[in-house]
Amino acid sequence: MVGVLPSVANECSGDSCKNVISMPLMDDMKATLKADLDVTNMNNHLKAYIEQEIQKGVETAMKDVMRQLIDNKLEQANATIEATVHEELTRIGVTYVRWGRKGCPDGAELVYTGQAGGNYYNNEGGGVNNLCLPNDPENGEHQNYDNSQVYGAEYNIDGNRKPHGMSGNLRYKAVPCAVCHRKQRSSILIVPGRKTCYKDWNVEYKGYLMANHYSQKRTDYACVDVNAEPFDNKSSYEGNSVFFYPIRTRCGSLRCPPYNAEADIYCVVCTK
What we know:
By secondary structure, this protein is an alpha+beta fold. Helix content is 19%, strand content 30%. Strands 4, 5, 6, 7, 8, 9, 10, 11, 12 and 13 form a 10-stranded mixed β-sheet that branches. Strands 1-3-2 form a 3-stranded antiparallel β-sheet, with no helix packed on it. The radius of gyration is 46 Å and the shape is rod-shaped.
């Protein structure tokens, strides 16, 4: 409560009066009187209230600043993570060999182009996998020992031995190949017996399964592009080579249906 000091003849002055204010009063006689009011408690309450409000304002402002700083940092961190992931995805990819063609499908990067090769079709030992040999080899030194295992590959495809849908006579012509890189893909799948990919997979190219003749030594199956082309215009039976014969199904342990007897075998190269 505001205290009222007794009236004094002289006005209050000095340090003792710093929290005292004078207020005019009216008595019953309508005469002007003056009272000195002690506002110390009011000042203390007002000061405490102001300090409390300032503290609240500062805390609120600091919270807003900290929240903004955190939001900005999170945005920067998310942007950095997104940019890093995008950059990594541009580098990640899969490679595959496109047999029977010198180039890659649209959108795929050509790593190198070359000639298909492998082991001599009638060798008893050695490797069995087909090789895509680059056209710009870095050759080793001549050796005297006898262990030749890398030969060129030739098509053995003609009018009587040609899958439906393939054009031209490719018999005894060298087989080209291309190593391709498809960016932003992590998996590759070669599906035998189909010419389309399964859901969510992307077609790189389609063709027919080929390998050595069954009477010759075994080789890997190769998915030869449906639009196969020759390596060059040379056409002669070399004999000392690996052959790419079209192959067909044989029913029995292979269930027909769903397969057809003595039929071409499609293949498709898929990525995801």
